[in-house]
DNA sequence: ATGAAAGCGCTAACAT
DNA sequence: ATGTTAGCGCTTTCAT
């Protein structure tokens, strides 16, 4: 055997560089342009050449270079989705709604996470915009000036989601958290609860939780009530924290007991519910409980928690639909506003009407 | 004031197209090349020009075009992360581990979701690879032939995560699910349980759950035991399903009662635990329970569930570290294997030793 | 320390 | 139905 020949023939390894259209073109004997057309299903190509090209591409294992394609066509089928967190259970649901819609289009979601930090948001946004996406879906209406400027200047559809209490740069889809807080307060007042405690996250930058709280206290005030006590947490397992905070706040008010606990999310509310049940507290007789968000798993708890469905997947779907429409038709009007109605669930921890005397 | 001058100066609207380096170059009177150097902090640039450029860029609101940059430099700071699901709580944790590491580098994770469907995985992978990422982190060792071929041909570091029971294309990081199943079986056997039920997802393509099951039954067999009954679910709230399945399997075996239930994840196990407690079943006296995954919130349940920590964030971190190292040093050896040890937690639902007679 | 030229891998626009 | 040409907005390389 001739080692030389061998090393040329059998051991021949194509240079380890990604394949290009040109490689497919040469392998199939079809011009680059036609190869491009086949691979994108654009323009008329005869069955024969089409097959030749497809065959060659498959054989070589060619994967088109979207970077080059995007640069040449100045079309990028990416939608930047910017959210505060993934570990929250709420944002994965929004993502699901978004994907449900985008999966039917050419568009693809790319996620950036801000950890509720405005400066992180600014950075993530800058990174994302530098890929020149076709649209942006971003959580919340509060952003740094620089972020707002970037979004406004990007010249692409921007949908701010989750919250509708404030001014949007372009489109917005969400619920009014202030109103959600008011509605819950109203239900609690109507049920005759008087000594109300609030339990939430120590997170000044969670604007939606803040707005719910504001709406809540506002409505209480109109009924001549105010929050009797409050307790905040940060970090750790929310379920455990819910238990701990509940114990703390109940013990602190033992002499003049609370009769309702409003939690800023369902996870801590669930912890509170488990605490109450473990300690033989009658819910909702002695004390009523309510959370916020309607996370799926509360259905499996010993008692169904009162909560409000935050319409997360609907929000995701609506936002994605707006982007898809605007991308498809660049002359479509901007500034869409979709305000969804969160659904109040009384569950089994909030009475529907006053306790009879 | 001169209106003409005003409308030229203040009212002047730049054409609505994204800004380019050239715009910054013209605005600052510095060559495009030098502008590029300033913006990337590369090469020597005098303080004076540097400031001129930075000023102009800021003023215009210039956002670099990474598409063009990536094409010219053939460097893309993206890491494709391909996972089956986001709603699972497990993958967001892996993502967190990945981000923890990548945030210290130039690299950025881009997520693709497969919904446990091989053909979806193939498609997502193709999409991702067409952006020419610097590396791939992909869940599992089982992929279609085409997917494996793409990964092998991509010429970039590939880390397969979560599972180590099988052959990797390049690097792998995870735990041995087969071994995890064996260990749990061993603990159950040693505790003296005999009539064991299995409850899991109806998901033939969740290879990791399958391997745990195989390891589990294998070890039982060695001890002369076998699964007494099993029950599967799909869709719906896992906590609710856990309750329902538990009721079903317990009632079906009322005449010869089960004394242990092994669940394929902690969420259904939690539902089972709540069911048992609601119905006055003594856990772990009458019946022992164990799940898998160590989700954070089980700490808040009335009884701590026996489970196994699946080391998710550690897996994410290790995988990201491998990618980061290989990207930084392309001559680094490939094929890393990191097998992490899942931690068995007995909690309060699995006895540590035999019940005395 | 700065600039000029060439080209990354595609696609738009125009031939043919 | 297919091919040719000229960029897309950057960075690389080589001058100066």
Automatic annotation (TrEMBL), chains A, B:
Q: Which domain of life is it from?
A: Bacteria
Which InterPro entries would you find in this protein's record?
HTH_LacI, Lambda_DNA-bd_dom_sf, Peripla_BP/Lac1_sug-bd_dom, Peripla_BP_I
Which Gene Ontology MF annotations are present?
DNA-binding transcription factor activity; transcription cis-regulatory region binding
**Family matches, as SMART domains:** HTH_LACI
> Could you tell me which PANTHER family the record lists for this protein?
LACI-RELATED TRANSCRIPTIONAL REPRESSOR, TRANSCRIPTIONAL REGULATOR
Q: What is this protein called?
A: Transcriptional regulator, LacI family
The species this protein belongs to is Celeribacter marinus
């Amino acid at each position: 055997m001739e080692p030389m020949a061998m090393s040329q023939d059998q051991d021949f390894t194509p240079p380890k560089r990604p394949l290009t259209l040109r490689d497919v073109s040469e392998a199939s004997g079809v011009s680059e342009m036609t190869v491009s057309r086949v691979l994108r299903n654009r323009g008329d190509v005869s069955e024969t050449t089409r097959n030749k090209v497809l065959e060659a591409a498959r054989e070589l294992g060619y994967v088109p270079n979207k970077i080059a394609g995007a640069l040449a066509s100045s079309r990028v089928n990416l939608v930047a989705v910017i959210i505060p967190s993934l570990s929250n259970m709420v944002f994965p649901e929004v993502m699901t709604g978004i994907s449900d819609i985008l999966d039917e289009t050419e568009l693809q979601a790319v996620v950036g996470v801000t950890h509720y930090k405005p400066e992180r948001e600014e950075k993530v946004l800058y990174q994302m915009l530098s890929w020149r996406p076709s649209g942006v879906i971003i959580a919340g209406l509060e952003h740094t000036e620089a972020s707002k400027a970037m979004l406004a200047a990007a010249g692409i559809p921007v949908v701010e989601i989750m919250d509708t209490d404030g001014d949007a740069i372009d489109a917005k889809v969400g619920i009014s958290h202030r109103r959600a807080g008011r509605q819950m307060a109203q239900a609690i007042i109507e049920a005759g609860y008087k000594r109300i405690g609030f339990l939430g996250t120590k997170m000044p930058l969670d604007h939606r939780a803040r707005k719910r709280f504001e709406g809540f206290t506002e409505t209480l005030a109109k009924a001549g009530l105010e929050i009797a006590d409050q307790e905040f947490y940060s970090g750790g397992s929310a379920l455990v924290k819910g238990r701990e905070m509940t114990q703390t706040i109940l013990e602190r008010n033992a002499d003049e007991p609370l009769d309702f606990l409003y939690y800023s999310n369902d996870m801590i509310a669930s912890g509170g519910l488990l605490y109450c049940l473990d300690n033989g507290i009658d819910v909702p007789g002695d004390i009523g409980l309510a959370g916020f968000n309607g996370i799926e798993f509360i259905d499996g708890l010993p008692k169904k928690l009162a909560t409000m469905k935050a319409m997360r997947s609907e929000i995701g779907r609506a936002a994605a639909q707006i982007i898809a429409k605007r991308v498809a038709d660049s002359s479509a009007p901007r500034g869409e506003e979709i305000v969804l109605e969160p659904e109040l669930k009384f569950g089994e921890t909030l009475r529907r009407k006053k306790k009879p005397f």
